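Quick note —
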Amino acid sequence: MPDKTDAAAEAALVQESFAAATALGDALTLEFYQRLFEWAPQVRPMFPDDISGQAQVLGKTLAFAVNGLKHPEDLAAPLQKLGARHAGYGVEPAHYAVVADVLIETLQSNLKDTWTSAHEKAWRGALDLVAKVMIAGSAGEGSTSVA
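Predicted structure written out below.
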């Protein structure tokens, strides 16, 4: 786990790249789902036929998590609840790694002029933490910290 200085620098990279990505609007999250269903067609039945509403939800959820990196202690409870809800949809722990890979690929593809290996490292770290907390929530564990 990075020390506080590294964590702050990585959070800043995630926030900076996410701000650039949000300029793409729903196109980014729609592309994410297109890629996800190509990578993992077995998850397609978990989603509605019209994915546009879900793409908006994903954008808002990502914004919540990315903005929450400023105060990670405030993310644990909401992410645990989100993980429990996702378990009810059939999401399995292995799905989180696929989602992280697809999201990073989508970001990299769209931010290619500014994307660096440091961005990827920062996003992987943030997504690993989010996954850890959501998986704990899906298992009914309520004490996992994000910080």
